[in-house]
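Exercise 7. Predict the structure of Diaminopimelate epimerase from Pedobacter nyackensis.
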Amino acid sequence: MKIHFSKYQGAGNDFILIDNRDLSFKDTDKNTVFQLCHRRFGIGADGLMLLQNHPDYDFEMLYFNADGNLGSMCGNGGRCIVAFAKHLGIINQETDFLAVDGPHYAKISEKGDWVDLQMIDIDTINKDGEAFVLNTGSPHYVAQMNGLEDYDVFHHGKTIRNNDTYKKEGINVNFVEDKGDHLFVRTFERGVEDETYACGTGVTAVALSMAQHKNQTGHIKTPVKVLGGDLSIEFDYDGKQFTHVFLCGPAQKVFEGEVTI
Ligand SMILES: N[C@H](CCC[C@H](N)C(=O)O)C(=O)O
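Solution. The predicted structure, encoded as tokens:
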């Protein structure tokens, strides 16, 4: 069976997107998704998404990690699927769509290459030693450090992700260095089981953790640099709850094609 797909990336977090409004892509078994995302044997991507119809929303987003498992929320994926929906003519400048963690509002630039995606409200940040642990649609571990450019993110991320606390459910491991005017973040992603160039729910988790850590309240805008580019997180924090949380950044189509599965 031939499948038409588009490849998108948001700050280097890359995805295969399939317009599945006609439900022709039924073959979402683990191995097919794994093969399509494989960087040697397939198209290559950190994840795969299906855009599907929904009676109450502009569309529904179904997200699979590169390992083939149905994933939790993907922030950069969410931004990319909004750009995809605009390119398909499903939406204009604004949208309300449904993802695994609930409804999301997003707005997209006129050119269709910059997306501000609203994330879920957060009221709980836990601690694991010095690290912060929270769920921004996906589970995240946030550790502060210096010398992050030269840090072995793969080794240390993998060790934390597979320790006794997190092994079963898995966790995404983010390392952050405060650079004064911005945060520098690197992430080891569950489901990819490797460092990725960017993680949207991850940088969101980092920005919220740092605001709580620094006792910042009010309307906060946090610029973040990741390996694949620049992202920005904006939110309101009253000392208890994080609301109006927006993940903002680029979302670009790279190519499209056909693949036989
Ligand atoms: N890259 C994603 C995270 C995907 C979630 C996944 N790695 C998991 O938690 O299983 C993002 O931009 O938010």
